[in-house]
Amino acid sequence: MNPILEPLTFPDRQVQEEVVTSTQCECLFCPEMFDLQSSNDQILAHFLLAHKLVVADVKEIVDLKRYIDYWRPKFRECGPKAYCFVMETENENREKEEYFMLAHELPEDQNLREKLQREKLNLVLKQQQKERKDDEFSHCCLFCRKIFTGNRKVLFDHMNFDHNFSVGLPDNVVFVEEFLNLLDEKLSQNICLYCEKTFKDRTVLKEHMRKKIHKKINPVNKEYDKFYLVNYLEPGKSWKEIMDEFDEYCQNEDWSDWFEPEAEAICLFCDFQSSAPEVLSQHITSHNFDFLGLKKNFSIYQQIKIVNYVRRQVHEKKCILCDEQCSSREDLSAHMQKLSHFKLPERSIWDQSQ
Fold it and tell me: At residue 229, does pLDDT exceed 70?
């Protein structure tokens, strides 16, 4: 699929990191309690072994506790058969047994997963916006201990240019204070941030990171996932997987090369799909949106920003020009058609850091 036109999951809350009152979670069926702080494996195993329930694609559920809290009263009132896929099998004694599955193919389950994802993403976006505007930020450099105050970007630029240490674009990072404290703690324990080996003192560690070019974080350590905005866009994918995909298509600046043969790309405004770039472009133009003009008037990076902006607005059922909230995709399309709003707003609205 054309990566630019690939649908984005954009899947609301206070501008603070989630306040989790308790990580204790009661079973869907019985009073047994489980602690979800360290792992979900115990409660999922209990569902299967004790109650014959499977929760599919758990890694796509951004808040398992709230997910379980939603289904618990429903299961206890009507039983799982009213909501789940039912699979009939035979046990070793050739007796029939029923197993139940919750999966996103079930409309109610999919709506719940998307709702949790939207709330999570909105929370993170608000937190990121707050941090980007925060001029009271203060933190010392991880390497030379110089203290930086004001916007966080100053510190990240310093570590990048003076110490050759980069965590990526500052605007792509969220929960910055917690992120820096985590990195600082690892360095104080003489742990390399990339290979995660422990050294006898800080001098040896710094020399190791310099010689081995290890002045970067470990891309496969999931501990860092929560600090990258991109990780919240597609449930079930880590920031490393998403960025690998991004790197693949950013290497080539030819628009036509972004269409893979026989891959289906999706219209920005409706469910129309086509593997032919010309057909898709003509279809999008039929919405009175100057899609072909994007290639002539904007750079590839700006084209990505525009498509991401349009995808987000349409997903949230908001007009791309006036930002009016509609109740459905159909109402949104009718609104934009009636008012001729199939056009971009002023540049400052969509041309935001990605």
Answer: yes
